[in-house]
Amino acid sequence: MTAQTFKILVTGPFAAGKTSMIQSVSQTQVISTDVVTSGEESDVKSHTTVAMDFGTYCLDGDDTRLLLFGTPGQARFRFMTSILKGDVDVVAFVIDAEATETHAVAGVELRALLRDLRVPAVIAVNRCDDITVARRLARALGALDGEAVVPCQLIDPDSGREVVVEILLTLLASMESTKAEVA
Amino acid sequence: MMHNTGITTDAAETAALAIDGSQPVWMTLNEARERAFTGEIVFETDPEVLAYLDHGIVYYAERVTDASLSRRLLDAGVLDDEQLDRGTVRVGDIEHLGRLFDRDPSVDRDAVVVVAETATEELITDLANRTVTTVRVTAYRHHPSGVHRWFVAPLDPAAPQHPVSAVAQLDSTVVDQLPGLPFVGTDELTIEWDDQIDVVDAIAFDDEFDVSLFDVAEESIDDLDVSDDIDAEVVELSLELAEFTDDIDDGDDGDTLVDAPALEMLVDVDTLARPDEGLTDEAITDEAIADEAITDEAMTGEADDFEFAVVWPDGSEEPAAHADAHVDDLDVSIDEPVVTQTDDGNLEFTMPALELSDEPELADADVPDDVSDAVRRAIAAIESASVAPPAALAPDVTTQVPEIADVEIDDAVDILSPMVEAPMAEPLAAPVVEFGGFAPPTMAMRAEVLYGLTDDDAVGGDTVSTFDGAVPTGGVASVVFVDEPVEEHSGGGNERSSALRRLIGSLRRKDH
After folding, report:
1. What is the ipTM of this complex?
2. Per-residue pLDDT for B407 more than 50?
3. How far apart are CA B65 and CA B318, in angstroms?
4. Hey, how many other C-beta atoms are within 10 angstroms of the C-beta on B181?
5. What does DSSP say about strands B2-4 and B135-139: parallel, antiparallel, or unpaired?
């Protein structure tokens, strides 16, 4: 049995819940590169990610590892998402359903993300419990019918883990699909 | 008389805008602002004037006889035909400009918006004191050109999101202070104060006043202060290395990676700066970044207020000192991460400073290679620090790499010649002494590729395994980025799927 590593890129607009999602799964202390926010951002939250968040999850007695990379939410760091998205197995895009003021930007980012993405993507709609609402929002922002959509409450770690499970299921389905096509 | 052609559910809102007899336009606009009306108001003047509002703020207004918005933008010289063509979405008879800035980044957004603002303000100013007897109100109807999107969908969520008619709003607020002001049927309406008042104090008593308007003014001032010599914060990404388990390997062809750029990152450890000591000229040795002036206005305006903190894996926070040096004075290496050994023996790895940019639509192709490399190197560093399972992570790195402080640069280069080795079949008994640095990860260095090589070696009987204790001969770690996807072996694919299922099962068990 060889070691297996799976990488998830967690991206999305500012204050959507990306870091919370990584923290809900990571067994190790999440490596954060936070700075004190300033200007209008400080009205939303006190610290924000500027380089990346990093969390891990390993199976006991197994060499299987899950690595989670979180990108900063501000548009000025969008280039990092562009770089990272080519090096991961699956991408999670987090949207805050109630932060409607971020949706226009989220749509731009989501469409840019999906434009040349070669790995499966999952849209996690935070602060939303209704799958219908979540799907409608995701579609409105540019998600395609094929993209998985998960409503979640990322303030709750259990919900964060459920999202990660959904992400891994999507990756598994993609791998199985690819395998079937090759066969 | 008012004709409400809007949606019936908005009847109450639009009814409030009804005109009883003749009244000046500004009263209607004030009413609309108080009601946070969103939609279209048509003032039946000669010619008719159409005003479009969002939450009570007029974001665009035009006479019915005016040229189209696109024509006015062309005439103003803020757009050319090619930009207009690229930025316009045409669906049937609809020519939608709402995505102009998304579709053509070359368009000067500020110039375009200013033209629209100016035209709107001139028209509203001209119209404000005129009397009308009839208005038509249609809730949630926006200008067909899609200009509404310009003012309610900024690209940067952190950017100020004031509606275009901020000035108009300010004027309206001032007018609100005079509720008993009788209507004067003249073209000029003059407001006078007997005493000079402190504007800020006066505003403090008005709960409805949008104080954020002053932010706009401050930002304008900041814009004026921008110069080439800008003190800027430089973000340090400091990563503590918990354990090194990557081994060092020669390439198949016998080439080592001595010449690889990543091997050049070693610097004299005596001259290295700790992260909390700020960036010094000694610690930053490349001119790559120094040549690029940081023009981030937000950073320049708030550099003194910007505080950085690095959260270490043990949970402790470490504030990073401000970079006091001018950017032009910095000698920064984006290719040369800084490695330091602290007084207590811990090894600290300081990533190159990342240059912050407010450019919202930076295309992939525009990302400098050095920045891209830095990000990739950060990933490699992170992954290297997490190769071992959590239980194997030792909190104290001192015992694992004690010799690092004694390594001379020249010797270290020799030690570090081979960069990457295919993974060992069994876990390493002890961490390697040699510090291998962090070569930029490549597709050829992906874990599944290396493990795939392991499978090949295990399956092929004639092939000498690299894990039998012999000196590794395979697994060249190329520094050339390979974009082609790597084919997975069927067996490895099954193992991968199986591993993924185990992961899912484990996470699900934690759910319950």
Report:
1. 0.84
2. no
3. 63
4. 11
5. parallel
